[in-house]
Design brief:
Elements lengths: L1 H4 L7 E2 L3 E9 L3 E8 L5 E8 L6 H20 L6 E6 L5 E6 L3 E3 H7 L4 H20 L1 E3 L2 E3 L11 E4 L7 E4 L8 E2 L3 E3 L13 H4 L4 E2 L1 H17 L11 H9 L6 H4 L7 H10 L11 H16 L21 H12 L13 E8 L2 E10 L1 H7 L5 E6 L6 E10 L4 E10 L3 H13 L1 E8 L8 E6 L2 H14 L8 H25 L8 H12 L4
Parallel strand pairs: 16-20
Antiparallel strand pairs: 1-2, 2-3, 3-4, 4-6, 5-6, 7-10, 8-9, 10-11, 12-13, 13-14, 15-16, 17-18, 18-19, 20-21
Helix pairs in contact: 4-6, 4-10, 6-9, 9-11, 13-14, 15-16
Length: 529
C-alpha cells in the first residue's frame, strides 16, 4: 500500500516494545496502525497516534482525555475498545495502544451486505450497553463524571468476529468525548467538533450544554441507516449550513420513502423516529429506556407479534385495522409532548399543527382535571364543525367529551379564522388528512401529556371544511371577524343549552344515551357529521 510505504512510523519500535507494521486507518484525531507487542509473543495491537505533536495544547489535551476515558471505560464495558497503555514518540507525538480487533465496522458492512432487522436489534442493544456504561461515568479524584461519545457513526461501531455467533459490538474513539458532570452537563468548546451527518440538532446549534440524548439522536441516525441501508438525510453537500438545516429543521423521511423494499416493524420505526426528534424532550430520556424498548421489540419479533405496515400476512378482509398505521407514529409523538411554556397552567384548550415524520398533523390540546381525564378514557366522543360560509370564512371546531356513566360532559371549542394563514393551514390539514389527535394534560401535573384521543373525520366533514375554505375566498363583503365569532358562539350556546337541558331531563332514565342524544341534536341542527 502506498500510504504504508511513505509513512515514517512503519518499521519503528515504540517504547522498545511495539513494532509498527501497517496503517489501519486515518481520522480527524490521528492515524491508527497495526503493531506487534514484542514483549508478549508479538501479539497484535492497534496503535493510535495524534497527527500533530504536543506543541498544540488543545489537541494534546483532547488526546490525553481520550486516553484516560478509553482506559477507564474499556475496563468497565466489553462493548468499548480497551486501551492498554500510552506514550510519546521521540518527536513528541503522543500515542496509545489498544486491543486489536478482527472484524469490520458498520460502514464497511453496509457496503457489502444488508443487515437484517433481528441483527440490527442485537447490535443496537450492545451499543446501548456500551453507551450506558459511558453515561454512568468514570471516576476522577473521587467524583463520578458521566461521559458522552458525541461521535456515534458507522465508522465508530466495530463488529468483532463479524458474522459469527460470538460477534461483539465495540464502540471506538471516545476522542471527542468530554466530561459531563451530573450537575452542569457538558461544556462545548467554541469550535465545532463532530461528524456533520451524525450530529444532533443541539450539537449543530452550538449549545453549550449537551446531555445523553445527543448520543441517542446520533444512534437513531445509525439505526435508520442500518435498517434501510441509507442515511435518512441525503445530500452531496459537505457544508455546515446544509447539515444544520437538515438536522434542525427538515423532518426525517419515512422508512418506506427511503427504501420501499424494507420491512421494518412499526414499533421499531416509531422508536427510531423518537430518537430522531428535533426536541430533546421528545427522545427517550436515557439509553436504558431505549435499551428496554429494543428488548421489548426483540421479544415481539421473536414471537411474531409485531405489526408492520408492509406485513403481507395481514388479511385483506380485515378493514378494522387500516387506520392504525396511519395515526400510530404521530400518536406516539403526541404522548411525548409537554405543555407549552407560553401557555398558562389553566383549564384551556387550543389547536396546534404538529410537525411529525408523516408531515403536519392537526392536534387539539386541552388541560382538564385529572379525575375527568380518567373518566373520558376509552369512551366514545363527538367532534363537529360549524361555519358561516355566507358571512365570513370562519369555522368553530367543537370537540365534545362525554362519560355516560356520570353524564359528565366537557365542551372543547376554538374558532379558526380562514383569513389567518396559520389557522387556515390547520383547517386545510384537517380536510386533507381526515383525523386529529386530542392531547389531554392534567391540571394537577401539567407538564407531560396524560392521554391522547384520536378523532376521525367523516367524508362529509372533510368536504364541509374544504367548501368553507374555498367559499371564503369568494365573499365580496364579509362581516367583521368579531361579528362572525359572535354569531357562531350564539349558535354554539343554543346547542349546548339544549344538550344540557336534555341531560338534566333524562338523568334518571336508565336507557338514556348521551352519545345518542348528541347525534340526534346534531342532525336537528344540521351540523355536518
Amino acid at each position: 500500500m502506498n500510504e504504508s510505504k511513505s509513512d515514517i512510523y512503519i518499521g519503528q519500535l515504540l517504547n522498545s516494545r511495539y513494532l509498527i507494521r501497517d496503517v489501519l486507518g486515518s481520522g480527524g484525531m490521528g492515524r491508527v496502525y497495526l503493531a506487534e507487542d514484542v514483549a508478549k509473543n508479538c501479539n497484535l495491537v492497534a496503535v493510535k497516534m495524534l497527527s500533530m505533536n504536543l506543541r498544540n495544547k488543545q489537541l494534546a489535551e483532547r488526546f490525553g482525555r481520550e486516553i484516560f476515558i478509553g482506559a477507564q471505560l474499556g475496563k468497565k464495558s466489553p462493548h468499548i475498545t480497551r486501551v492498554l497503555t500510552y506514550g510519546i514518540t521521540s518527536d513528541k507525538t503522543p500515542f496509545y495502544v489498544m486491543e486489536y480487533l478482527h472484524g469490520r465496522n458498520i460502514k464497511q458492512i453496509l457496503k457489502m451486505e444488508t443487515i437484517t432487522v433481528s441483527r440490527v436489534l442485537k447490535i443496537c442493544q450492545q451499543i446501548c450497553l456500551g453507551l450506558d456504561c459511558a453515561h454512568q461515568g468514570v471516576e476522577l479524584k473521587g467524583q463520578i463524571y458521566p461521559i458522552l461519545h458525541r461521535d456515534i457513526k458507522p465508522e465508530n461501531i466495530f463488529i468483532a468476529n463479524n458474522g459469527k455467533p460470538t460477534e461483539t459490538v465495540k464502540i471506538l474513539d471516545f476522542g471527542i468525548a468530554k466530561f459531563l458532570t451530573e450537575n452542569s452537563g457538558m461544556t462545548m468548546t467554541e469550535s465545532f467538533i463532530g461528524s456533520l451527518p451524525y450530529s444532533s440538532p443541539e450539537h449543530m446549534q452550538g449549545q453549550k450544554i449537551l446531555d445523553v440524548r445527543s448520543d441517542i439522536y446520533s444512534l437513531g441516525l445509525l439505526m435508520f441507516e442500518m435498517l434501510t441501508g441509507r442515511h435518512p438525510f441525503y445530500t452531496t453537500s459537505h457544508s455546515f449550513s446544509t447539515w444544520c438545516k437538515l438536522h434542525c429543521i427538515e423532518a426525517p423521511p419515512t422508512f418506506e420513502e427511503v427504501n420501499p423494499s424494507v420491512n421494518v416493524p412499526e414499533e421499531l420505526q416509531r422508536l427510531v423516529m423518537r430518537c430522531l426528534a428535533k426536541y430533546i424532550h421528545d427522545r427517550p430520556k436515557n439509553v436504558r429506556e431505549l435499551l428496554e424498548d429494543l428488548m421489548t421489540i426483540t421479544e415481539h419479533l421473536e414471537n411474531n407479534s409485531y405489526s408492520s405496515e408492509t406485513d403481507n400476512q395481514q388479511s385483506e378482509s380485515d378493514t378494522s385495522l387500516k387506520l392504525v398505521p396511519l395515526t400510530s407514529i404521530s400518536e406516539t409523538i403526541c404522548w411525548q409532548k409537554h405543555w407549552p411554556k407560553n401557555k398558562p397552567v389553566a383549564l384551556i384548550c387550543f389547536p396546534h399543527l404538529l410537525h411529525t415524520p408523516k408531515g403536519n398533523i392537526p392536534t387539539f390540546w386541552a388541560m382538564l382535571p385529572a379525575t375527568e381525564i380518567q373518566k373520558f378514557k376509552d369512551k366514545q366522543h363527538s367532534n363537529k364543525f360549524i361555519g358561516k360560509c355566507d358571512d365570513y370564512p370562519m369555522i368553530l371546531w367543537l370537540t365534545m367529551l362525554c362519560d355516560e356513566n356520570t353524564n359528565l360532559m366537557r365542551w372543547l371549542s376554538c374558532y379558526l379564522d380562514i383569513k389567518d394563514n396559520r389557522e387556515e393551514k390547520i383547517l386545510r390539514n384537517l380536510a386533507a388528512i381526515g383525523y386529529y389527535h386530542l392531547l389531554l394534560f392534567a391540571h394537577e401535573y401539567p407538564h407531560k401529556c396524560t392521554h391522547v384521543l384520536n378523532f376521525i373525520l367523516t367524508a362529509q366533514q372533510r368536504q364541509y371544511i374544504s367548501d368553507i375554505i374555498n367559499s371564503g375566498q369568494k365573499i365580496e363583503r364579509p362581516i367583521l371577524a368579531n361579528q362572525a365569532k359572535a354569531m357562531l358562539k350564539l349558535e354554539y350556546e343554543k346547542f349546548k343549552t339544549e344538550v344540557n337541558e336534555k341531560l338534566r331531563q333524562n338523568s334518571t332514565n336508565s336507557t338514556f344515551s348521551v352519545k345518542a342524544l348528541l347525534m340526534k341534536l346534531i342532525n336537528f341542527w344540521k351540523i355536518p357529521s
